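Notebook entry, structure prediction.
Reason for the run: the old model in the group folder had no record of what sequence produced it. Starting over properly, with the input documented here first.
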Amino acid sequence: MKKVTGKLKMLLKILSILVVVIILYVVVALALAYIPVNTDTVVCKENCVEVYMYSNGVHTDIVLPVVNNQKDWRAVIDPSKTKAGSTDFNYVSIGWGDKGFYLNTPTWGDLTTATAFKALFYLGESAMHVTFYKSMKESERCKKVLISAEQYRRIIEYVHASFKTDSSGKYQHIPNAAYGNNDLFFEAKGSYSMFYTCNSWTNNCLKAGEMKACLWTLLDKGIFYHYK
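New structure, fully documented this time:
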């Protein structure tokens, strides 16, 4: 009986520690999301580049012009490879995330314990999800920001550095992977975890572009809070 009681106490102690850790994790995550960075960024007024932050309610992307005088994304992300086979797009939405989540979990009902475990503990690979649009419409989940050419140059560098490339420098397209008719998947660098999510990637992209962002975030709400 004493042995059983001792094991039970140990189990309760471990569970208590886990609960405390989870609570601290949530509190810190929420607190850091409300701390702003780049608050002194000057709003662009001329020769601006139009970009968007877009969220599906959970996952955020950075939306960029398909082509301008600084970058033609069609050269590295060919829209004709989509199921639509079209090149008639004006915007490209780019997001980073766990490869298992992206490819094997189109809906939350498809989520498995193995996929979630790998994603949370740096065990899985990552992927870039690219979606093409003809137009963008502002809403609570889609915010437009005008930035300078220099800011956009920094964003281009950040996004490019997230893609894996082959020996010839080309992005590594993942064949037969798409959600719809106008999107593609590519191999990416880095690993998803409970400390670095798809939204952390987008937030770091904003930081790299010297745009308003939060100190650290796991959720899309952390980003959009600073763009109210």
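Summary: The mean pLDDT is 87.
The old model has been moved to the deprecated folder.
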